[in-house]
Design goal:
Length: about 400
């Protein structure tokens, strides 16, 4: 529970914000049409005027903080602004006005920020959605959206969220880790990098598997950098995160339904369409649903070297999850036929994990070398074990 002093500050902030909104209307100032400097001066003068008129006891530091926070309220996303600007923050999780957490270097920690109340959280959510034409109300209490910088946002409000409105933001970064960065950080060895590079250049179909926050998109982006420059690549994502420095690339992105429930474009639609675009390789950001059917068939019919990611804790679990996705999306075939399809389509699984200290690493690289008895027979190409201190010990597999 916030202290009395903190609560009084939050109440003051709420009153000043409402006052400033009224002043903007009275003066006819349109936030989107004035420069940041003009808006900052307007906010500074009016906040100072309000505090002086009401003889509110505030230190110089508190007045500076209040002015900055009101500026964020008027022109940005309120308490989220400093977290969005902090490059060390990867995820922002708002569980309620006073419960804000961030992920830094793979470790969750409480953030030194808060919202005024539940209405404040909802107001910020709606500000995020306003330019997108998306709706959030009791009849539509869940939404996925994207900030102007590409960050992914999921929001959910009562009555679905029992304890109040919630926001989850996966930040988008322009600075993907390079292959050498991953080696330097201990995410993989130099031998592993050489192995993965050869697999990509030799047109192996690769599936990157791992749990939430293990760095699947980072690895997929890194692998994509080694695709030969003369090849045509089509990427398909829910939110465009891959940054390929490639001369011949077509980027496709799914689209949710509009407020009338029409216009939805799924990953499966885009995979089907991509096959008509003469790609040499298809890169699917993540396998989640029926698109797995078309992706496996594409890998089997002339689009070698295609890649995707999947949520799974082990390489074996990844295959089981693919089986499940095929079944629930209407792929009607015997267990043996399903096994042969998967085994003949996928060549390599790159399994990722995250240690207790937040370090992400390539825990295993396996090649599928199925036969009649076991279509999922695996050969280890690379493996990372840990010593007694929890430090990774990378070794090349016996299959090399």
């Amino acid at each position: 529970m916030a202290s009395r002093t903190d609560q009084e500050y939050q109440n003051l902030k709420k009153r000043v914000h409402y006052y400033l909104v009224e002043r903007l209307d009275e003066e006819g100032v349109e936030v989107g049409r004035v420069s940041n400097d003009v808006l900052a001066t307007f906010v500074q003068n009016n906040v100072a005027g309000y505090v002086s008129h009401h003889r509110t006891p505030l230190s110089a530091q508190d007045l500076t903080n209040l002015t900055r926070e009101i500026q964020d309220e008027v022109a940005g996303f309120g308490p989220l602004e400093p977290l969005l600007a902090d490059e060390s923050v990867n995820d922002i999780l708002v569980n309620g006005p006073e419960d804000v957490f961030v992920e830094v270097a793979g470790v969750l920690q409480r953030a030194n920020t808060r919202f005024i109340d539940d209405d404040h959280v909802v107001r910020i959510i709606r500000r995020i959605l306003a330019p997108l034409g998306r709706r959030l109300d009791e009849s539509s209490p869940m939404v996925d959206a994207r900030l102007p910088d590409g960050s992914r946002v999921n929001a959910i409000i009562p009555p679905i969220a029992l304890d109040g409105p919630s926001i989850s933001i996966r930040k988008f970064t322009q600075k993907h880790l390079t292959a050498q960065d991953l080696v330097d950080r201990g995410s993989m060895s130099a031998d592993c990098l050489e192995l993965l590079t050869k697999l990509v250049q030799n047109r192996r179909n690769i599936l990157v598997s791992g749990g939430t926050g293990t760095g699947k998109t980072t690895i997929l982006n890194m692998l994509s950098q080694y695709i030969p420059r003369e090849e045509r690549v089509v990427t398909i994502e829910d939110s465009a995160e891959l940054q390929l420095n490639h001369p011949h690339i077509v980027r496709l992105e799914t689209r949710p339904a509009n407020t009338e429930g029409s216009g939805k474009v799924t990953a499966r639609d885009l995979v089907i369409n991509s096959l008509r675009m003469r790609p040499d390789r298809i890169i699917l950001g993540e396998v989640r649903s029926g698109e797995i059917i078309e992706l496996l068939q594409a890998m089997n019919t002339g689009h070698e070297g295609s890649m995707s990611t999947i949520h799974a804790n082990t390489a074996r679990d990844a295959l089981v999850r693919i089986e499940t996705l095929l079944a629930v999306n209407g792929y009607d075939a015997s267990e043996r036929a399903v096994g042969r399809l998967i085994g003949s389509s996928l060549d390599v699984i790159v399994q990722l994990s995250r240690l207790a200290n937040g370090r992400r690493l390539v825990s295993e690289v396996v090649a599928l070398a199925g036969d009649g008895d076991d279509p999922y027979r695996m050969e280890s190409l690379y493996r990372t074990d840990t010593d007694e201190a929890g430090e990774p010990i990378p070794t090349l597999g016996s299959a090399l």
